[in-house]
Amino acid sequence: MEGLWQGYDGEWGHVARQVIAVARTIPAEKYTWRPAPGIRSISEVLMHIAIAKLGLLNATGVKTPADLTSAALEKSVTAKPEVVSWLLAAKRP
């Protein structure tokens, strides 16, 4: 799978670091904020990113965490420490 990552690894890492930095900067009390009803909250957006990145990693042969049971985690994981933990798990090993 290393051939697949050639040329993408730098971008993957760069974006991962940026998203994690943003997630760490946002105050915990803002994680439930949403711009309007029916729009994803901040935690839902960040979890959506983490779940999508883990899915892409899985497609390249990287084992996904056992507790990634479904996309429903996007709505159930809302606390800042947990969200950041998922984003960290979505970094390429």
What is the domain total for the residues?
1
- How much of the sequence lies in strands comes to under 5%
H/E element sequence: HHHHH
- Overall average pLDDT: 86
How many whole angstroms does the radius of gyration measure? 14 Å
Give the uncertain stretches in residue-range form: none
Structural class: mainly alpha
Q: How many H/I helical runs?
A: 5
Structure summary:
This protein is mainly α and 93 residues long. The chain has helices at residues 2-5, 9-25, 42-59, 73-76, 80-89. It has one domain (2-89).
Can you put this structure into words, describing what you see?
It is a single chain. The protein is mostly helical and 93 residues long. It has one domain. It is built from five helices and no strands. It has helices at residues 2-5, 9-25, 42-59, 73-76, 80-89. Helix 2 (9-25) packs antiparallel against helix 5 (80-89) and helix 3 runs parallel beside helix 5. The protein starts with a helix and ends with a helix. The mean pLDDT is 86.
